[in-house]
Specification:
The chain is an alpha+beta fold. It is built from 15 helices and 34 strands.
């Protein structure tokens, strides 16, 4: 049993400095020419314990803290895509995350998305409040610990930075996180640490590294213990075409050992499959060849696997050395069955996403919003997905859509979408998919409402006001009060017996002609066909006339009516009971 290095993911909004932080950590090591201080891996960079101690020497001396973990494995691809690709039976294999926030810009859409994902997967994280060097009046002290640099700033500059940090604390509290500047925290198990840094000047970078390492060591405990000789367990970060090799798998190994010749199992859209490892590759930095071949890799590490039959492997799929294929297959498929392999009965939206983790996150988001997903999968949006959505639309128009997250839309799918009118909703921000879907539903209901208003008589009920008869016929002109629903020109009117008595020619309100009258309004109408005092009397209740076909159509669109209008429709239906 040994302690492995914690796996660290960086998340945050575009341009807030995620990549710069990783580059600066690497750059520090390259510049210092420390032998073995950094190891470039596939999809990851390994920072040794010596490097962390070197970058945070002043801080570790002050804290009298001894680092026991061997180092930190940073995932090189920053962002939620990498984070959600690190899967193991429904959870993330990232041990800890850095949420990078531009201290000047504060929370942005992808910051919020990242925070939601971290909360969903209950992943410990710290906040790197980046770009403190942009605070007006800030004087930079390259590579200094934050507290040392901060203490040298004028008081008004310190106040400005604290104001920005309080803003971040306020946003975090909206998502039920209590947070504080890291040097003011007394209990790290109860508060999220905010580390002010400048990736550009490296101020606070050592603090960030030491804090991640220290928190991992203190709170992750036994989860960092691995069997060095145990069967390898990992997660597919990316499925890549490599010149001269064909399809390869970029994998983060988080447990055990992986050897050339091992049989490995992974997920495809058709279930679990296995193959034998033909080659294990690691980067050959500065060498003539791009990769070096190795016989084995020990966790935690990043490695490229070359093996036949991996073309359909899902990014985000766990990948394990096979113990017993049938048992492993059952366990792996069962763990993700409810997410991607099970087509739901009844109508639901169709989902395609870039990885298993993304599918998982979106399925949960839509489930919480009580929006059913009929079919979820990893991969491009094809014509088949659009046709499937078209079949759903026949049963429920508002669920007949295809959702795409960070995937290509094939030309055949666009063509089918244009021909069938099926909407494809695409986004690279997970919760925007839900927002866009809800907005589309709202727009569709409004559009349908307008179409219905144009085609169908809207349920309406009115009372003839006593004492307001201005003309008895040809046309009759009299006062009415709209008791509910709507009244429009050219609507036919019927009495309580279901007999049509006339048709609205004009509507006047305060001597001005109007197109429509609504509930609660009193106004004058002129009607053809009515002979006031003969086929209608003052005080009579009249309804907007509807035939059986119109009533049946309204029965399928009840969601467009308010409660008062639904009651009027039921009254009209009772008048026409001979048809029902």
């Amino acid at each position: 049993m040994k302690i492995r290095s914690p796996i660290v993911a960086t998340l945050g909004h575009v341009d807030h400095g995620k990549t710069t932080i990783l580059d600066q950590i690497r750059g520090s090591n390259v510049a210092s020419k420390e032998a073995g201080a950094i190891t470039q891996m596939i999809g990851a960079s390994y920072i040794t314990q010596e490097t962390i101690n070197g970058m945070a020497k002043r801080l570790s001396d002050k804290m009298k803290f001894q680092l026991k973990i061997p180092g930190l494995l940073f995932i090189d691809t920053p962002g939620h895509e990498a984070f959600t690709n690190l899967r193991d039976r429904g959870g993330s294999i990232a041990d800890i995350a850095i949420l990078v926030v531009d201290v000047m810009q504060g929370f942005q859409p992808q910051t919020i998305e990242s925070l939601r994902i971290l909360k969903q997967y209950k992943t410990p994280f710290v906040v790197a409040a980046n770009k403190i060097d942009l605070v007006q009046g800030w004087k930079s002290y390259e590579g200094e610990p934050f507290t040392a640099s901060f203490s040298k700033q004028p008081e008004h500059v310190q106040q400005k930075l604290d104001e920005k940090l309080y803003g971040l604390m306020g946003k975090l509290s909206e998502y039920s996180f209590d947070s504080e500047r890291y040097d003011r925290i007394t209990d790290f198990s109860k508060q999220i640490a905010i580390i002010p840094i400048s990736a550009r000047t490296k101020e606070g970078l050592g603090d960030l590294l030491m804090l991640i390492a220290g928190l991992s060591q203190r709170f992750l405990g036994d989860s960092l213990n691995v069997e060095e000789s145990g069967k390898g367990k990992g997660s597919i970060l990316e499925v890549k075409e490599e010149k001269g090799l064909g399809t390869t798998l970029d994998v983060i190994l988080f447990d055990g050992i992986l050897r050339k010749g091992d049989e490995i199992i992974f997920l495809t859209s058709n279930g679990a499959q296995s193959t034998k490892v033909r080659g294990l590759l690691i980067p050959n930095i500065g060498g003539k060849e791009k990769f070096n071949y190795v016989d084995e890799v020990v966790a935690a590490a990043g490695v490229k696997i070359f093996a036949p039959g991996t073309e359909d492997a899902m990014p985000g799929s766990p990948i394990n050395v096979v113990m017993d294929f049938e048992d492993d297959k059952k366990a792996l498929e069962a763990a993700f069955h409810s997410v991607v392999f099970e087509k739901k009965e009844g109508p639901g939206v169709i989902l395609r996403a870039d990885s298993l983790g993304s599918v998982e996150a979106i399925v949960k988001l839509f489930k919480d919003a009580e929006i059913p997903i009929k079919d979820a999968g990893v991969g491009k949006i094809t014509r088949k997905a659009v046709v499937e959505a078209s079949n759903v639309a026949a049963a429920d128009h508002y669920l007949g859509v295809v959702l795409g997250f960070n995937v290509d839309i094939l030309d055949e799918a666009r063509e089918e979408s244009n021909n069938s009118g099926i909407k494809i909703i695409w986004s690279n921000i997970i919760y925007h998919l839900l927002d866009q879907y809800n907005e589309w539903v709202k727009e569709e209901k409004e559009r349908e409402k307008k179409e219905m208003l144009a085609k169908l008589p809207w349920p309406g009920k009115l009372k003839l006001l006593p004492g307001y008869v201005f003309r008895v016929n040809k046309p009759a002109i009299f006062g009415v009060e709209v008791l509910g629903g709507r009244l429009k020109k050219q609507y036919k009117l019927m009495n309580k017996a279901g007999e049509v008595v006339g048709e609205v020619r004009e509507i006047q309100k305060e001597k001005e002609k109007v197109e429509e009258a609504t509930s609660g309004q009193q106004l004058a109408i002129s009607c053809d066909g009515i002979d006031y005092g003969k086929n209608v009397q003052e005080g009579d209740i009249l309804y907007v006339a509807m035939g059986p076909d119109e009533i049946k159509l309204w029965d399928t669109k009840l969601g467009m009516l308010n409660d008062e209008e639904k009651t009027i429709l039921e009254e009209v239906k009772r008048m026409q009971k001979r048809y029902f």
